[in-house]
Amino acid sequence: MRRSTLNLIATLGASVIAAAMIGSAEFGTTARASVSTDPVNPDSRARSEAAFRRIAGVLRDPRCMNCHTVTEFPRQGDDRHPHIMNVLRGDADHGVPGQRCSTCHQAANQVNGIPGAPNWGLAPLSMGWEGLNDHQLAEAIKDPVRNGGRTLARIQEHMAHDVLVSWAWNPGAGRRSPSISQAELGRLVQEWIDTGAVSPDSP
Amino acid sequence: MISLTINGRQERLDLPPDTPLLWALRDGLGLTGTKFGCGAGLCGACTVHVDGEAVRSCSAPIGALEGKNVLTIEGLAASVGRELHPVQQAWIEEDVVQCGYCHSGQIMSAAALLAQLPHPSDADIDGALGGNICRCGTYQRIRAGIHKAAEIAAARTDPGKAAAGAATSGGMPA
User: Is residue B173 part of a domain?
Assistant: First the structure.
């Protein structure tokens, strides 16, 4: 019903609305300051969906997904096998007494091959992304209950600049990075937000 | 120059900051109780405590340890003010060791576990010591030793609680 209404509005007035938006000198800054979650322009919706599908490709990369699990353990490697040594999530997502993440992972990659970055640990279970389709993934990321209380602006900041996220593009020898740069990821997240942060239709 | 506390003593290490703690301990300070096993964080033989948490010293650069409190096997007993730490005493009573090479790491991991979980279950032990490899295969005796250590620690603090703790600890190993 809501989608049909949006399409009708878009059909009747898209060009007028778009012209008004483009004509506003403040459009760019306004869009960044306040997120629209009700896009009326089908072009915006398409752009938003397209941006998110590229974002989702990064989020599903093993460098991200291995610690955004829905399991009681992290994963390792491009084949995403369970972390060796019976490494467990623990109550606070940073391991168990006697074997914390910091038992091996320090604040930087080590010359012996052990990866590291500040705050190394699992994402909370509410941020587990395994098994989610694009729609569900977008919904999970937008939901403050599941995303750690983050606004979309903070989500963009997290993906574009967080030091632990940045590790994915400096993973140490023997590990590959996501297919696009972190700067491109940050730009795509901003574009997704600016175009309404649309959750793509499933799948 | 890196300043840190090792076994209660203030130390100043004039070594490159990327020097692994294990090298600083063994070659710099002569504390050879901590063993080199793999050098890659895969065996646990080099486990020490940093601010109370188990850490693989082969993978911890000293530059990241400024101001930290390091405890090695040499300082473990003194850290509880006794001749033997409960884990060390239990290791003797249960005759846990075979060749012994991995056991300073096993003991340090066990001590870190017990400091936070005084009466661990078998699953707690498996989670805590999953990164400590023993090629002699003494794992059953390690489990038994940790349960015994829990009893010893409880008895030292309160003999009455020791019996109660043993009854709720998830059972003694075979």
Answer: no
